[in-house]
Predict the 3D structure of the following.
Amino acid sequence: MRTKLRLLQLAKLGASLVAATLYTVAGQSLAATERVGDFALLDEQGRFHQLSRYQHRDAVVMLTLDGSCSAAMNDAKELGGLQSQFGESVEFIGLDVSGATRSERHQWQLPFPVLGDEMKLVAESLGLSQAGEVLVFNPERMSLFYRGGTDAALNERLMAVIDDDASDTVTADVTGCAIEYTDLARHKESPPDYSTEVALIVAENCAICHRWGGAGPFPFDSYVSLLGWSPMVREVILNKRMPPMQVDPEAGTSANAHAISATERQKLLHWMEAGAPRGEGEVDPLELIPLEKEFDWQLGEPDFIVESPTNIVPAVGIQDYEYLEVELPFEEEKWVRAFQYSPGDERVLHHLMTFVIAPDEDFWGPEKTKKTAERRFLGSFIPGENPATVFPEGTGVRIPAGHKLALQFHYVTNGLQIRDNTSIGLYFSDIPAEKEILTRAVAERFTIAPGDSEHPVSAAYQFDEPVKLLAVRARMNYRGKHMKFAFIQPDGKAEDVFSIPAYNYGWQPHYWLDKPVSLAAGTKVQVAGAFDNSLSNPFNPDPREAVTWGLESWEEMFTGYLTYVVDD
Amino acid sequence: MLKQTLLGLALAALSATSLADEWLKSLPDFELQDQNGVAHTLDQYRDSEFIVMYVQGVGCPIARIALPQYREVRDLYADQNVEFLMFNANIQDDIKRISRESNEFGIEFPILKDEGQVLAKALGVERTAEVFVINPQTQEVLFRGPINDQLGYETQRNEAHDEYLKDALDTVLAGGTIDMQEVPDSKGCLVAIFDT
């Protein structure tokens, strides 16, 4: 019975894959509009592209590429011509389905970015059949204006688009090179097994938060729960919304950055394409995931507990930051070797940051008046992360006598009024740490024009002593788009150390580097990024406003934080 | 339960079938139970001017946050003989879970459990938090879309610029027809549809 149903499903999927062609045969008078799902990928420079974030453009033209397909590579040149003709209002991108490396894609020297779709998951979801196939997207309605080749029909269609005379999907013939979906065919024949493969991927990558009592809004607690959520899972994997806090995997790594490997993404999606079968496994691993355990101080009873007063978070609406300054009762300096947050309610507490400040300072310390400043940053809380941080052996954060703690809370609303009581447990070392952990804020001031989708900003700082870089953090508000940390050694050698290609205001972790980076004295740090003040940025409160630098949430800031110790 | 096969995946990404005239479909006759075990039939709402139906889903952030906005529209049309309902077609949400969600979030609307996804399939449901305006006499869907433009994925605005549901109700109450070209697709959690 089950086999029969699955076969029916296969037939259905096959039918929808060729549906566009069927309409062509029937002629264009049917006025069918083919809708598409959102997707996101990185290009050959590690830059992030997401279809739904091109709504400020009339259209997005995407050419399917394969380095071994000369027809498609010739088409790319044709497309360059169209780009000079329509580039004012139309975005041009390439999609590589041959698994070319970034440097290979770079060597193609195309006038548009080439996105890497190594497992062809995006190509599958868009029903692409050939290298050389062009899709023209309507990014506002998430549909297609065109599916075909690079010939005259494409030019004609783009003319119609810029004349605002297009809404349905026009299809035309393509002469390119067939894309082989061998993995998909294999997985449809023999789907990844639910209980030994699929459920484990979900348990490890999603159920950290999506479990009963966890920070996620719903749990994956059974096969049926995953089945019901699977179209949503597929969508957020394809547009990289989940897991949150993804970074460029080819520019530094951090345990705070989340990612599902390409093979795991493929297994999950192909299992769904195959009808999401339960398989033969007796045990359902998702049913065995325990309730989020009760809070405990993982490192034992803290030496000192900072209690925050109750913050009342309303049921709906955007919340401004809450600030809190805490006087400490110590008469001598203290060295923090570890700390742990005890979040009141992880469903609404989206971040909490704590700095050590001088008696006459507030949360922002010297950043208020200086573009670059030395800070004592204790750490941050992010839902789903381990709330405890133990600093590396021999290091610690110093609290000079008489200094205070300053906290910044960011709440998101979830439909319920919530009372949040959060506290921080501090663990001191008996003797001063050998090395003091410091955090260098490197910032720039600017004004962003209304509607600007890519307003670049960069800031630089030179370390005059050798340092070991331990962690980085990007700080922007709603319009933040991306930020990259690079180093220029005294000998002129430049290297990317960490890159956040899709900054999200709602998820701002402190990225502890898997491999601390030693920087020679005289190394220049460059923090480069951009803001998106266009209507394509879903977090933008108002694309019609010019925005200037400022510390309030309706203003914008551009700060890279570098956490380090002096390395002698 | 295990014999269900997933159909919903093809919806957004692969479907070429959403011809403009198929977008607004018809509501079938129904007899469904709500979260409190109360039965609802289309017949009992025949005398309403219009029925509004909200696609509810347990655990969906947008479906939760849109609740006060749905309430606000209901209150605005309180004396216009418009019926405001919800239904849940998620296979992962049984009556027990729906009831727990409605208690936790204080949902006073009847949430009809769409067993077998009969309503969802007939209406062409894609996402939660979408609302449908239906003429109970003809059973025709006159509008479908978001309540307003306040909510997005992991984001919201404190004020709405466009009030799609209110505009739709004003239009149909005045005897007019809604221009669906002006209405964006709804945002919410994708509902998986099965061929049981």
